[in-house]
Structures are given as C-alpha cells and as structure tokens.
Amino acid sequence: MTASIATAAASVVPCWSCKGPVATRALFCSVCGAVQGPGTIDHFSRLGLQPTFDIDLDLLEKQYFGFQRRLHPDRFAAKSAKERALSQSQATALNEAYETLKDPLKRAAYVLDLKGHKVDLTACGTINDPVLLMEQMEKREAIAEADTVDTITKLSAEADTEVIACQCHISAAINAGAFEEAVHLTIRLKYLAKLAEEARTKKTRMTRAMR
Question: Which of 69, 79, 80, 94 has the fewest CB atoms found within 10 Å of its own CB?
Fold first, then answer.
C-alpha cells in the first residue's frame, strides 16, 4: 500500500450508527445522517483549511460559523442522548480549533508543533536570549515612563507595528523551512504582544483620566 493510499484509508472510519464509511473530519455520516464524534485530526483539517500560518481569516470564520450552525443544540433537541453528546463534543473541538487558529501567536506555535518544533507559550521564566531580554526591558521601561497621551499613543502604535512585522517574519521563516528561526520569532512575538497590550491598556487609562 502506498503512503497516499494508506493516508486515505486512515482518514475513513466506520459510522458508529450504521457502520458506513465516514471521513474523520465529517460532522455527519453521509449514509445515515447521524452526527459523528470529533475525529483525531489537526485543527486545520477540522476546519477544512490548508495547514499554513498564512490562513485566510475570513475563510476561517466562514468555515467555523458554518459548522457551528449545523451543530446548534436546537437541531438535536429531539435526538438521542448519545447524539446530543457527540454534537457537543464536535462543537467543543471546533471551538478549540477556531480559538487556536484565529490567534497569530497560538497559530504559529501550533504550526511549528505540527512540524515537530515545540514552542511552550505557557513558560514564564527568565528570558534566555540576552538580545530579546534587553529589547523587552527597554520597551517596558519606555511604556512605564510615558507620561503623556501623545507619548503612549506613539509607543502603542510602534508596538502594534512590531507585532505585525514579527508575524510577517514568522511567516517567511516557516515558508522557508527555517523552523528554529520561526521558534525564536514566535517567542519574541509572545513578548511583543504582551508589550502591545500593556501600551494599549496604559493609553486607555491615561485617556480616560483626561476626561
């Protein structure tokens, strides 16, 4: 059996209700119409998207909300307890996929994980990269010392621009197969996003204080 045929075979499972063939990413059996449980598949496959960092966010939303409408609880009110439970499991799996893929930081880490390069976004210890550490210290100090709305507005805009630029660099690195560089950039994005949030929060607080 060739690799492509083996993959195709592995992507089909029997329906729990009628035992007919069902694709692992299918919500319903095409033979009997019974809702299926969420298959063990990646987030991209679950939402019918290509496994890439550069996803179409409009398409992501269209796919997600389209699937969720088909799983609305009202559609299963008269179904069996098993079908209600399976529909809820499908909805939960879709929610997790959507929440991961819509966020650039989580999406970058997820794509890299699929490539065999783990990025721990929950780690909150000391930054090991001295260049990144110095960058973060300087930017955080500038935000802390900002004492006018104009100053914090400028810093906030700069932070947002750096976040976007870092996302572009991550995309380029992943597309070039430079996964170690992409891991480093993803860690940098984590801290840049936090700084951007801090700047926005301080800007909002200072703007409200002037009213």
Answer: 69
